[in-house]
Structure formats: structure tokens, C-alpha cells
Design goal:
The structure holds two protein chains of two kinds. Chain A is 27% helix and 22% strand. By secondary structure, chain A is of the alpha/beta class. In chain A, strands 4, 6, 12, 13, 16, 17, 20, 21 and 22 form a nine-stranded mixed sheet that branches. In chain A, strands 1, 2, 3, 8, 9, 10, 11 and 23 form an eight-stranded mixed sheet that branches. In chain A, strands 5-7 form a two-stranded antiparallel ribbon. In chain A, a hairpin with a 6-residue loop joins strand 10 and strand 11. In chain A, helix 5 packs across helix 10. Chain A is globular and about 65 Å long. Chain B has a domain of 150 residues. Classes of the chains: A alpha/beta, B mainly alpha. Chains A and B meet through strand 1, helix 2, helix 3, helix 6 and strand 9 of A and helix 1, helix 5, helix 7, helix 8 and helix 9 of B.
Chain lengths: 513, 229
């Protein structure tokens, strides 16, 4: 049952075996696993409940309806837009559907640095297998590559660069291109249309517009949650709720989870590492109309530089990022493109001529999430080796587009940097382009704010996902990952959440299931 | 070139935390069920938070900028009649802030067929819905933009500059070596350009044909959510 808080009047009390806070990649994956094995599940979602018919494909409406802080959230210095969803289905409502298994080298790092001995390919494989089957994950069909994707492929092939069509979570996609504003055709297999209906079908209750304020703890054990149901249009309270449960799982995403834990517990491990995978864009003017809107936004991924390369003496020599082809909508593109006035107008006249790539920088230096005067805020500064990665990305993205036949490549910084040849690449692209507020930057892979790990001094929760210091309290979402994944983290979040669910079921399992 | 499986290790200060038990109370502080409400993080747990205004203070030039902005009278609505002239009932911005935003939109939306007042009132509405901290931050940004013209060598307020001079002034902020000024510039232009180019009136410029749903009827696959109340 879906219970929309925005339509409720008065207080609500419920009781469940497990209450899951958050309905996205982590929360819904965990919840459906337990619900279909006999657990009585209640889910609580801060955002609203939207269906296909609600997705207008208009960017300003989508951002306002189901993006956190109406799509306007930034780091404290205004330098980085933070892109995350608040809706039933969580970030999978607006994600692109790219579905990569966790790279083995990253699992190794988490084992070695965070004591997560269980994190092996073999251990996660059955969970990835199940999720991939349930979501219909497959290599995207060739027909879903728009011309921007094909031009990037052409550039990569010319340069001998490793790149691939990614696995994607969609069935019978019609390639409208508007997936990031919610799939209006129910073809992207988000949690909204896959696990949420299954949870509802077996008796789970999913409350939308439900803002959790308190995690109830008795004798060191989580016993439930309390909060407020809000009116979606006005944000005014409509009533309070309380859910008592044997287990509490926090899956509110890196920001939502961190905020809730910061409000409830005094734990220095919460919010102190905040990974975002900084996204910088590069645009290419091909001097003719190309299709940069339809198809799958990201139907081609450049993996050549995923890992950092070093000289024999250990100095940075490139890499530390992947590149994704990027969808273009006019409002967001206008925000990204450089210049103002007539110069900006001329660039916008070339809207349909533009190819675009964006970075997913695998940062070494995370930011942080904190409360200031009761308000959740974030800091993130690109620094050290991460600046070098960003500059290296700008150069290699430019090279790909030039190899694909672009007339010129635009680094969308405040200096209006334009690149037409290799000499320009070497001379004009510098670190000044990636200073804070020197160009549009965003983060949409938000991770690591309540990490799991073996060391209580370094992690909020233990390797099983259960909090080190509160029994019966689990974390299972992007916040739980110890660091950046180096690829789109969605499938990793789902796989880890499902593994945590399996552990919960094994340790606390319901009889007869 | 040899590859590594990772990259730099975490620097000190962002890596392993020194565990600090909370003094005078056992962990956790969440006490519950009829007890005192679970409260937020203790103020001593983290260094003092740097909010956006605080960040501006720490940026080069920010201290002087904030000091100057803080002594500016806020109740000078009589000098800013634009909202009244436009017939706007403001929801988030003051008349002065609205006038600054409208002047900025007029300056940077050259030949864009969306009237600056339409953008300014749209942003005012959005800020009202977004609430804090977005609203407060944007109000600060507009105050700084209006009154820090002196730093750009101009003796008149932003709204008193002619359009060309406003553009030139904003360009100096765009390319400033001071993060503060770039932040103000980027925040202002991002709001204005986003809402301008979401407006259907700009489609002749971009050639954007609009979302499919406006043009093509394709039924969604059915999904059974069960009971929805």
C-alpha cells in the first residue's frame, strides 16, 4: 500500500518487523528482499509519490518535484550543484540507468583499507545476478545511441581509447531521452516501478511525504522512528507518525542519511567523508545539427582513464576518472555554457550542434556534511591530485571530440576557453578552469557519509551494515559505501544493500520462510 | 605507464577519525520514548560550521564585502519601485532584491525573448518554495551584487548602472581571482539562465522542439502499485 502523507490528516502509528527510511536504490532493494521473505515492512520516504503520468519531461518541473531542495542545492561555497532525488523510488527515479558491477580493484581496496573482508566478486555475484535479472539490465541497444554518443565513439576509436556501451536498466526503451526527469513510459526499471510495487503487493506499507526526525533507541537498541507527514505543496505538517519496529534501516542517501544521523547521534564518523564524483562538462561544436537529446543520455562510457596512472617514480601521470556522454536540456545547458549577453546567446543558438561529455572523477579528497544552526550543509573542494585529474579529463575529452571532427571544443569556464587543436589542448586547458565557481560543476554520485567498515573509529556501521554502537540500526545506501566506486554506483549500492538484507534475514530471519 | 589499483590515500584529517567519546554522557545521545528529544550533533564535535555567508567571510575580500553589505540599509524600498511597477507581489525577495535581480536579468539576457520581469518574478516564486538555506543565500548574493560596485571601480549601485556597464561589471566578477565574486556571479547567472531557457519562448533560439510528451502520445506500461491512498 502506498500511503501519501500529503493526503493524510492526523497522526499515524504503525508497527513492523523492519522500518526502512528511504525508498531508493539501497532501501527498496533491501526492503523487497525482506518483504518477499515474510518480513512485515514499512518504508518511509521524505519525497512525494509520482507516477509516469506525473512526469511532464519539463526540466524545471522535474527538478522542483523530486530533486532535493528543488534541484537548487549546492555546496556551501556555491561551487558544486548537488543532484539527488527525494521521491518514492529515490534517485533511481532520475538516474540514467547505467548499471556497472563494482570494479574488483575497488572491492580489494575496501577489503584492505576498511576491513570489509566479505566484499569479494564471488560474494556479491549472486546479488548482482538477481538484481540484473529483476531490472532487466542489459547492454544498451545500438539504436539507443544518439549522434552525440556515436561521435564520441568515433573519437575514441580514432584515438584507440577504451570505451563501451554500458549495461542499462530499462526494458523496451523508446529512447525519448528524458529519463533524468522521470520515465514517463515506465520503461526505465527504477525502484519506483519494480521493487516498490512488489513490496506493496506483499503487504508492505510505503509512506511518502514522511520526514523522519527521531530514531528511537531503548537500552542501546533501535526500536523505531518518529517524524512528521508534510503537505507536499506547502511543506506544512499534516500530522505526526510513529513506527515501532524490531529493526531500523537508514537508506536516505548520502545526504539524507547523514542529516538524520547527525540529528540523532553524536558520532564523529558521520558526514566526515562526502564523495560526489565531480562532474565537469566539455562541449563540442560540430558545425551541423546533431541529435544530442534523444536516445539514452549516456549510451557510451569512456573507461580508458578510470585508474590513476603514475610514473615509475610515483608521480601522477593521468587518469582517475571516467567520461559519460551527457544529455542536454536547454535550461541546464544554458546554465552550463560560458559567457553572458550576446556571446552566450550565440552559443545557445548552437544548442543542436553540440556534443557533450561529462566527467566522473574518482576523488581522493572527500568533502563533508555537517549541521550548522540546525541546517544541513556540505563542503567539497577539489584539491591535490583531484585537480590534476580534472584537468587531465578536460584535455582528453577535448581530444576525443577533436578526433571525432568537432570544429571547436568549449571548456565552459568563465574564461570562455576554446580549443581547436592539440596545441590549444596543451596550452589553454589549465587548472584555472576547475577553480571553485570558474565553471559549472555538479555531483550526483553522493556517497560515504555513514560508511561501513571494521574500525569503529573510521566507520559508523560494521561490515554487516549494523551500527557499531546501536543494535538493530542498519545503514544500507550510498552513505554506507566507504568511498567512491569509480563508476556509476547504483548497482553497487543495490548489491551491497541486498547483501546486507540477506545477512539480516539470516541472523534474524522470520520462521517458515 | 604503470597503473595502480587506487590513487592517493586519504590525507590526514579526512581519513581515519580519532574516536572521541562524548564527554559527560554515554553514547549515543539519542534518548528516547518519553525522554528528552534526540538532538543534533554536539557543537563541539566538529569544527565550527562554515555556512555560506561564513564561507564568504573566509574568502579573499569576503570580510570587507560582508562588512560593507551589513551596514547597508535594508529598508530603502522607496528607491526600488520595480516590483510595484511590474505588479509583482513578492513572495521571497524584498523590493530591493527584486530590483537587483531584474536588473541582472536585463543585463545578461540580451536579445533573449523572455522579459526580465518574468524571470525575476519566477525566481522570486522559486525561492519562496525552496526556502532556506537557498533563499537566504540568494538574498545575500543580490545584496553584494548591488553594493559592491565600488570594488569594480564604479561609484554607483548596480541597479543604477546602464545595461552595458552592468554587463561589464558582471564580467569582472566572473573572472575575478576572488572566489567570492565568482560565486556571486555564478549564482546569479545560473538562476537567470536556467529559468530563461526553460521558458518555451526561447525555443526559436535553441531549435529545441520540446519534450516528447508535448508531441507524441505513447502509453506508459501499466504498473500495479496496489492500493494508493
Amino acid at each position: 500500500m502506498i500511503i501519501q502523507g500529503t493526503h493524510r490528516t492526523g497522526d499515524v502509528q504503525d508497527r513492523a518487523d523492519v522500518v526502512v527510511i528511504g525508498t531508493g536504490a539501497g532501501g527498496a532493494t533491501l526492503a523487497v528482499y525482506l518483504a518477499e521473505r515474510g518480513w512485515d515492512v514499512v518504508m518511509l520516504e521524505k519525497g512525494g509519490f509520482f507516477r509516469a503520468e506525473d512526469f511532464s519531461q519539463r526540466e524545471e518541473e522535474a527538478l522542483a518535484d523530486f530533486n532535493g531542495r528543488r534541484g537548487l542545492d549546492t555546496t556551501a561555497d556555491n561551487a558544486i550543484f548537488l543532484n539527488y532525488a527525494e521521491a518514492v523510488g529515490g534517485t533511481t527515479v532520475h538516474y540514467w540507468g547505467d548499471s556497472f558491477r563494482t570494479p574488483p580493484d575497488r572491492l580489494q581496496r575496501w577489503r584492505e583499507e576498511h576491513g570489509l573482508e566479505w566484499m569479494t566478486e564471488e560474494e556479491l555475484a549472486p546479488h548482482f545476478d538477481a538484481i540484473e535479472q529483476e531490472l532487466g539490465i542489459h547492454i544498451a541497444e545500438e539504436r539507443l545511441l544518439n549522434e552525440n554518443n556515436r561521435l564520441v565513439r568515433k573519437g575514441c576509436e580514432a584515438l584507440g581509447v577504451e570505451a563501451h556501451i554500458p549495461p542499462t536498466a530499462r526494458i523496451d526503451c523508446i529512447g525519448c531521452g528524458w529519463t533524468q526527469f522521470g520515465c514517463a513510459y515506465n520503461r526505465k526499471t527504477s525502484q519506483l516501478i519494480t521493487t516498490i510495487p512488489r513490496i506493496s503487493k506483499v503487504g508492505g506499507r510505503i509512506y511518502s511525504d514522511a520526514r523522519v526526525e527521531r530514531i528511537l533507541v531503548e537500552n542501546g537498541r533501535a526500536t523505531g522512528v518518529e517524524g512528521v507527514l508534510v503537505d507536499r505543496a506547502t511543506d506544512r505538517p499534516r500530522g505526526r507518525f510513529r513506527v515501532d519496529a524490531d529493526l531500523v534501516v537508514v537508506s536516505g542517501g548520502a545526504l539524507g542519511t547523514a542529516e538524520l544521523l547527525l540529528r540523532n547521534f553524536d558520532d564523529p564518523t558521520v558526514g566526515r567523508r562526502f564523495y560526489i564524483n565531480p562532474h565537469f562538462w566539455v562541449f563540442a561544436d560540430f558545425g551541423r545539427e546533431i541529435d544530442n537529446v534523444s536516445g539514452i543520455p549516456c549510451a557510451y562510457v569512456v573507461h580508458e582513464w578510470r585508474l590513476v596512472r603514475r610514473t615509475p617514480s610515483g608521480e601522477y601521470a593521468g587518469g582517475g576518472y571516467i567520461m559519460l556522454t551527457s544529455h542536454q536540456s536547454p535550461g541546464i545547458t544554458a546554465t552550463m555554457l560560458p559567457e553572458t549577453g550576446a556571446a552566450h546567446l550565440e552559443r545557445m543558438r548552437k544548442f543542436r550542434h553540440l556534443g557533450s561529455l561529462m566527467s566522473v572523477i574518482d576523488e581522493d579528497h572527500p568533502g563533508r556534511v555537517y549541521l550548522d544552526g540546525g541546517v544541513r550543509k556540505t563542503e567539497f573542494r577539489l584539491k591535490g591530485i583531484d585537480v590534476l585529474k580534472a584537468v587531465d579529463y578536460l584535455k582528453n575529452a577535448s581530444r576525443i571530440f577533436l578526433a571525432a571532427g568537432a570544429q571547436e571544443v568549449w571548456i565552459p569556464d568563465v574564461y570562455g576557453t576554446v580549443v581547436r587543436n592539440e596545441r590549444d589542448v596543451e596550452e589553454r586547458i589549465t587548472a584555472r578552469s576547475v577553480q571553485p565557481n570558474a565553471q559549472f560543476c555538479a555531483g550526483s554520485h553522493l556517497l560515504g557519509t555513514a560508511p561501513i567498515g571494521a574500525d569503529p573509529r573510521d566507520s559508523f556501521a560494521g561490515p554487516t551494515g549494523e551500527a557499531h554502537r546501536v543494535k538493530g540500526l542498519y545503514v544500507a545506501d550510498g552513505a554506507a559505501l566507504p568511498s567512491s566506486v569509480s563508476v556509476d554506483p547504483s548497482l553497487t549500492i543495490m548489491g551491497v544493500a541486498r547483501w546486507i538484507a540477506a545477512g539480516i534475514h539470516e541472523r534474524h530471519g522470520r520462521a517458515g520462510v | 605507464m604503470p597503473e595502480t589499483t587506487g590513487s592517493e590515500r586519504l590525507p590526514s584529517g579526512t581519513g581515519r577519525a580519532e574516536f572521541r567519546p562524548v564527554s559527560n554522557r554515554s553514547w549515543p545521545v539519542a534518548e528516547i520514548d518519553g525522554g528528552a528529544p534526540a538532538r543534533g550533533i554536539g557543537t563541539g564535535t566538529f569544527p565550527p560550521g562554515i555556512d555560506r555567508r561564513g564561507f564568504l567571510r573566509t574568502a579573499a575580500g569576503g570580510t570587507a564585502a560582508i562588512a560593507l553589505a551589513s551596514v547597508i540599509p535594508v529598508g530603502c524600498a522607496a528607491d526600488y519601485p520595480q516590483a510595484t511597477e511590474d505588479g509583482v507581489e513578492l513572495e521571497a525577495l524584498s523590493p530591493k532584491e527584486y530590483a537587483v535581480l531584474r536588473a541582472a536579468a536585463e543585463a545578461i539576457l540580451v536579445d533573449v525573448p523572455v522579459p526580465p520581469d518574468r524571470i525575476a518574478r519566477r525566481i522570486d516564486r522559486e525561492l519562496a518554495l525552496a526556502g532556506d538555506p537557498i533563499k537566504t543565500d540568494m538574498k545575500t548574493v543580490l545584496t553584494l551584487l548591488e553594493h559592491l560596485t565600488l570594488l569594480g571601480g564604479r561609484l554607483r549601485r548596480f541597479t543604477a548602472l546602464d545595461v552595458e556597464d552592468r554587463v561589464a561589471y558582471m564580467h569582472t566578477w566572473a573572472r575575478s581571482r576572488f572566489t567570492l565574486r565568482r560565486a556571486v556571479f555564478q549564482a546569479t547567472r545560473a538562476f537567470i539562465y536556467f529559468f530563461a531557457y526553460c521558458d518555451d519562448a526561447t525555443r526559436p533560439i535553441t531549435g529545441f522542439t520540446g519534450p516528447w510528451r508535448e508531441r507524441i502520445e505513447i502509453p506508459a506500461y501499466p504498473v500495479d502499485f496496489g492500493e494508493v491512498v
